[in-house]
Amino acid sequence: MTTFTDLGVSDAIADVLHREGFDAPFAIQTTAVPDALDGRDVSGCAPTGSGKTLAFSIPVASLVGEARPHRPRALLLTPTRELAGQIKEALIPLAKVRNRSVATFYGGTNVNTDIKRLRRGVDIAVCTPGRLADLVQQGECDLSDVDIVVLDEADRMADMGFLPEVKRLLDRTSANRQTLLFSATLDGDVDVLVQRYQTDPVRHEIEAEQADLGDVRHLFWSVTRQGRRPLATDTLKAHRGSAIVFCRTKRGADRLAKQLKKDGINTAAIHGDRSQNQRERALAQFSNGSVTTLVATDVAARGIHVDDVAMVLHYDLPGSDKDYVHRSGRTGRAGADGVVLSLVLDDQHDDVHAIQRALDLPKGLDRGDVRDLDRGGALVGAGATTNGGTGGRSSGSSGSSNGSSSRSSNGSGGAKRSSGSKSSGNRNGSNRGSNGSSNGGGSKGETPSGGARSRARRRSRR
User: Fold this and answer.
1) DSSP character for 318?
2) CB count, 10 Å around CB of 68?
3) Which residues contact 446 (CB under 8 A, 6 or more apart)?
4) ∠ CA 217-44-16 to the nearest 5 degrees?
5) Do 204 and 257 lie in a common domain?
6) Is 294 in contact with 303 (CB distance < 8 Å)?
7) Are 205 and 239 in a shared domain?
8) I need a labelling partner for 104 at 20 to 30 A (CA). Which of 74, 140, 297, 408 fits?
């Protein structure tokens, strides 16, 4: 069995991981950590729940230098407050080994508290782009000493329109920085970041390991607008276990949460207009089981990482197949089975057929019947990926009358590793980095200049 020390992790940090319950690294950690510890730029493509937080937290805690006031040394950018908080919790025990400080900076909190922390000095800053940009503009945060950058969930930051701000922030960091990028996909806007801000990155693509996957049943029920809410209530009452219900708008989430409470369902709402304390309290209640149903918008739910969510209910249909993937990935994790249910209005049939087609889910709709929760629909291996997310290719029927039932699997887990080509130019805003292609056989020693540059970086950070 591979251990963390086999990857080059120090004994002291490995001991902390052991005390936290981590003895054997996951696939993304096994592939990415050695390269990151060697100072290489890394592009990681890994699904939610694959262990990527530790894949970048271990190198950051191992390599980060000491900060001066107002000048952090490591910058971690993430799309949501919830993710920032979870990353901080993972980093704190690792950073303590080398007496490094960790702080979060995001909206919805007192900016004066942020300023006081920066004036004392913060070694590792975990931020959402908006709040960090405000602090930079006020002259309270200088990014020129940042020589380790992590972009977590880069695809979601692109979806949420953060990339222009992300680019402006990265252009302020050190020209000799190391950049670690993790995303569910590495194409499109994310590839722009790879090309512009990474030099000779090692690319790791990880598929979820089959042993960690549960089976997820995908159901699409045709409903009327008047019958949608009563059917949602009946479904949540009939289905045992926790559930996340997705709404398109913040107002809609609040309204549905109140209605479900009146119907006797322990419910909390989470969205961008909720205060940070309200959001944290809702997540804590959902995690400990005192709240069984969480009503969420897409943006807020991106930070929800709870392994035993039994159902995802699309009360409002997602806007795209990518949104369907992100939402549905909340269930079927850590080997647990799950149900993904979409309530489809009469004027949304074409939209849902487009999602089914894009994700290779069998086309069709059923009439809503709570007795069908444990049968019918498309039974899909939770880690099967199509276009970068949950979905799958049919390989057999489970007997649904409308032909929209299948079981699929992505086979055994695995990883692809490649090294991109290096281009000329400096690190502040020039076109530089990998072309994103995978040659499937890169090794640390194949680019001598990259290795020499990596060693020089590590010496400068000590």
Assistant:
1) -
2) 11
3) 419
4) 90
5) no
6) no
7) no
8) 297
Of 392, 408, 424, which closes a domain? 408
**Residues 17, 122: one domain?**
yes
d(CA 362, CA 329): 18
Instruction: Say if residue 192 is in the same domain as residue 203.
Output: yes
Q: Tell me, what amino acid is at 103? A: A
3-class DSSP assignment, residue 100: coil
Q: Which residues of 247-272 are buried (b: 16+ CB within 10 A; e: fewer)?
A: bbebebbbebbebbeeeebbbbbbbe
Q: Are residues 18 and 115 in the same domain?
A: yes
- d(CA 245, CA 236) in angstroms, rounded, equals 9
Q: Is the pLDDT of residue 452 over 90?
A: no
Contact 408, 394 (CB under 8 A): yes
Which domain range does residue 92 map to? 5-209+413-461
DSSP string covering 326-363: HHHTTSS-TT--EEEEEEE-GGGHHHHHHHHHHTTPPP
- Per DSSP bridges, beta strands 378-381 and 407-408 are parallel
Cα distance between residue 255 and residue 245, in whole Å = 12
Based on the fold, state whether residues 214 and 164 are members of the same structural domain: no
Q: Which two tokens stand for residue 25?
A: 């690294």
- Summarize the confidence of residues 437-451 as an average pLDDT: 35
> 398 and 423 in one domain?
no
Query: Closest Cα to residue 396, out of 371, 378, 382?
Result: 378
- 147 and 20 within one domain: yes
For residue 377, the model assigns a pLDDT of 59
Reported as a pLDDT band with limits 50, 70 and 90, residue 381 is low
* Mean pLDDT rounded to a whole number for the chain: 80
Q: Is 80 exceeded by the pLDDT of residue 56?
A: yes
State yes or no: pLDDT of 397 exceeds 70.
no
Query: Is residue 230's pLDDT more than 80?
Result: yes
d(CA 84, CA 283): 14
- Give the residue from 388, 408, 428 where a domain finishes: 408
Classify the phi-psi angles of 429: left when phi > 0, otherwise alpha if psi is within -120 to 50, otherwise beta.
left
Give residue 130's pLDDT.
Answer: 94
Kindly state the average pLDDT of the residues 85-98: 95
The conformational region for residue 210 under phi > 0 = left, psi -120 to 50 = alpha, else beta, is alpha
Of 52-66, 314-328, 398-412, which has the strongest mean pLDDT?
Answer: 52-66
Domain count across the chain: 2
Query: Where residue 29 sits, what CATH number does that domain have?
Result: 3.40.50.300
pLDDT digits (tens, 9 = 90+) for 316-365: 999 888 888 888 888 877 667 889 999 999 999 999 999 999 988 878 88
